[in-house]
Structures are given as C-alpha cells and as structure tokens.
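In response to reviewer comment 3 from the previous cycle, which asked for concrete evidence that the modeling workflow produces usable outputs, we include below a single protein chain processed end to end. The sequence was submitted unchanged, and the resulting structure tokens are shown without manual editing.
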Amino acid sequence: MMSAEAFLNFAVLLSLGLLTVALLATVWRVVVGPTLPDRILALDTLVAVAIGYIAVIGVKTGFSLYLDIAIALGLVGFLATIAFARFVLERGMTDEDRLEDRERTQ
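The workflow returned the following structure tokens.
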C-alpha cells in the first residue's frame, strides 16, 4: 500500500513530466507556428503551462506564496493575450486582407 506522501511525490513527478512535455510542444509551436495567431495562442498556452509549474512547485514545497504568483502571472498573461489580439486585428492584417474583408462585408 502506498502512503500519502509517496503518492504525492509520484503525482508531483508525473505532473512535472507532463508539464515538461506540454512546454516543449508549446515552444515548438511558438517557433514553427505558421501564422501569427498560432504563435499568440502558443504564448497564451505557455503562460498556462508556467502557471501549472508554479502550482505544482507550490504543492511540493507547501509554500502558499506561489499561489499569489500564479494568480499574478495569469492576469499578466491575459492582458498580454488581449494586447496581441488587438495587434493582430489592427496592424497584423495586410492591405490584401483588409481589401478582402471589405469585399466580404459589402
């Protein structure tokens, strides 16, 4: 029978392993992503993975300040995603994209 501490250590190691795989896949999408929106979505996912890392480390150490750091990172990540989305909507479109968009709305 597995003790609670051994189970927690196993769960932490498994979580860190899965988060590492997610981090590598996300970094790959940031580097290779075919379009700018793909890269922006990957950066948002990267923030979520970082929050996961912070949460797992907080559980492992028992230090509750990590929760505050994760919340702050979540807020900053959300604001960055909104800023990138505005950039794509306003400046990320080429003149051809704007022309096609106008033609579709008329």
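The mean pLDDT is 89. We consider this sufficient to address the reviewer's concern, and the full set will be provided in the supplementary archive.
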